[in-house]
Amino acid sequence: MRSLPLSSRPYESEIPDASARLHPMSGNAESLVPLLAGWHAFEILVVGDFMLDQAQHGSADRLSPDAPVPVLLSRGASDLRQTPGGSSHVALCAAALGGRVRCFGVTGADSEAKALRSLLQESGCDSTGLIEDASRPTTVKRSIVGLAQHRHPQKMFRVDVESNEPIEASIEARLLKAIELAAKTCDVICLEDYAKGVCTESLCQRVIAIGCALKKPVLVDPAAISDYAKYKGATCITPNRTEAALAAGRRLVHDFDHAEMRLLAKSLREQLKLEAVVLTLDRHGSYLDRTGVEPLHVPTVARRVYDVTGAGDMVLAALAAALANQFPWPEAVALANVAAGLEVEVFGAQAIPFSQVRRQVLMQAGHMAGKIRDRESLRIELEARRAAGQRIVLTNGCFDVMHAGHVLSLRESRALGDVLVVALNSDHSVQKLKGANRPVFPLEQRMEVMAALECVDLVTSFDESTAHEIIRQVAPAVYAKGGDYKRAEEVAECALLKEMGIELRLLGHVPGVSTTAAIHKMRSHETGIVGG
Question: Which listed residue, of 216, 235, 454, 501, carries a Cα 20 to 30 Å from 265's Cα?
Answer without folding.
Answer: 216
